[in-house]
Amino acid sequence: MPEAFADQPLGIFGGTFDPLHYGHLRLAEEAADALDLGRVRWIPAGQPALRDAPQASAAQRLEMVRLAIAGNPRFEVDAAEVEAARPSYTVETLARLRAADACGTRRPLVLLVGADAFVHLPDWHRWEALFDLAHIGVAHRPGFPLDPAGLPAALAQHYRQRVCQEPSALAAAPAGRIATFAMTPLDISATKIRALLSNSRSARYLVPDALIAYIKDHHLYPET
What we know:
With about 220 residues, the protein is an alpha/beta fold.
């Protein structure tokens, strides 16, 4: 890792990415700007624990991430979850990153999630332990900031105690804060993209051209 980025907050962006699309890319890019992140590390899930099995294989989804982020110096990829033959849990991923031979215990880590995922955080495995391992950066629609009144009670309590308004607060500690940021609203989802492709319709301008070519070459998301 270049020395210039070694002490800056590192964004952690995990997901199934089946397939990755421009909504993912904009979230990561805008998070890097809004939260003053040195880098964003993309971590494709090998075996997602809380959803149905992906249609594309773990290796194919990893390759699509690599193709999509190529050329962006702030983006990097972590293949460890794909290579592990077990379900992916975010808390265990963050614990792995806290090892001395990875990011260590002192570097600020910022787990990036959308507001819709954040609302369901209490359904995640050992969710309260996430705050011991990382900050959480939550993307929301412009003009619609998070309202703690709309969160589950336990999560609302954490939100009120941990929310910060300035990105500098994330750089001051390795974990434990919540920061929100508005991102460009893009009504794109992997589910919609798979539906388009399975009906022989174009997904151009929803995913990068390099992924369109890869999907075609590997016959992903075939017509049903």
